[in-house]
Every structure is written in C-alpha cells, then in structure tokens.
From TrEMBL:
Any one Pfam family match given in the protein's UniProt record, by short name: OMP_b-brl
Signal recorded as keyword: yes
Keywords for the protein's UniProt record, in alphabetical order: Signal
Name the UniProt record assigns to this protein: Outer membrane beta-barrel protein
Cited SUPFAM superfamilies: OMPA-like (SSF56925)
The keyword Oxidoreductase is assigned to this record: no
InterPro entries with a match to the protein in the record: Beta-barrel_OMP, OMP/PagP_B-barrel
Organism (species): Vibrio algicola
Signal peptide positions on this chain: 1-21
UniProt xrefs under Gene3D superfamilies: 2.40.160.20
Outer membrane protein beta-barrel domain sequence ranges: 9-191
Amino acid sequence: MKKILPVITLGLLTASGASFAADTSGPYIGAGIGVGIFSAGDYADDLGSGDPKSSGVAYNVYTGYMFNRIVGVELGYNDYSTSTYDKNDIKTKPTSISLAANLGYTFDNGLRPFALIGLSSTNLHQTGNALILDKDNTAALHYGLGLDYTPASLSGVGFRIAYQIDAFSVDSDINIKNGKLKKTSYTMGAGMAYAAVSYHF
C-alpha cells in the first residue's frame, strides 16, 4: 500500500495538462483500499495499554452526486480493519456508514482537491474483554481530505487518494473508584488513508 499511494499521486500531478469535460455534475461510484488507523486516546491509557495496533486491509465503497464544480454529497461504507490492544484480549473492528458533503473545486484538467464533512453511524465490533458500553451504532463526526483526478480521456474513470476519520465518544465501565467500576466517557477515532478508483456517469 505504501508503494501504491506515491505512484497514484505522481500520476495525478504529472497528468495535470489533460483536458476535462466542462460538465462536472452527476452521480459517481467508487471503491478504495488502504491502511486503517485507530486511536483510543485515554481509554487505552486507563486500560493499561498503548494505542491499539491496526492490521489487515481497510476499505471503503462510496457513491455520490456532484451538483456542480464545488458541492456534492457522498454516502459511504467504511471498514477500518482490525485493531488489537497490547496486553489485553481485546480486538476492535470499526465500521461506519457515512453521509457527508463533498466540498472542493474541480479544475478543467480533471483535478479536484476536496474535503468531506458530515456524520456517520459507527460500530466498534469489539470482542474479548469488552468494557465499552455503547460499542454499537455510535454517532460520529465524519471528515477527511483528498484529491480526485478524472481525466476526460478515460471516459468517466477516476482516481482518488484521501484520508478520512470518524471521531466519536463512547462510555465504558473501566475506571475503578472505591472498588467499583465507574462509567467514563472516552473520545476515539477510526480512520484510513486510502487509494480508490471511481466511475462518474
């Protein structure tokens, strides 16, 4: 994956002289693969473990509609791979369904830097010594940055490199106070850096 992202980035930049169709509106679909990133913050500290280590391939599928060169809307399913906590029999496999505005600008050469901002429903799928109380269907803030490239010569086929994250708060009975478990709220984030291929209708 580390070799794929630089190659696509170089291709996007060197192809900037290509022409692009004037009409940039319409629907699109895409799919990407990448590297998952999971941050547990204070939860990992209170658990007595470092941040969980991600393994496997993260992926997403998405569809959207561009209203013009600047504004679009995007619906996605995101799988952030599996994360394991050191010294604890706990695994987390966060997934989310996201709905976000796609804000950016599509240049005549087909390049489009963009930002995603919206909401998602995130599920942690935690197993093992699970202590998180609301690990299912947690509301999250979905956001990201990326670059799309859709050359006219490929008849609607496009490419994307991007980073996105779902940030959310969960409750857990993890802190022991006076011999009793104490419910505490923790902020976490599940994200991915990915490369994708899309088709614009």
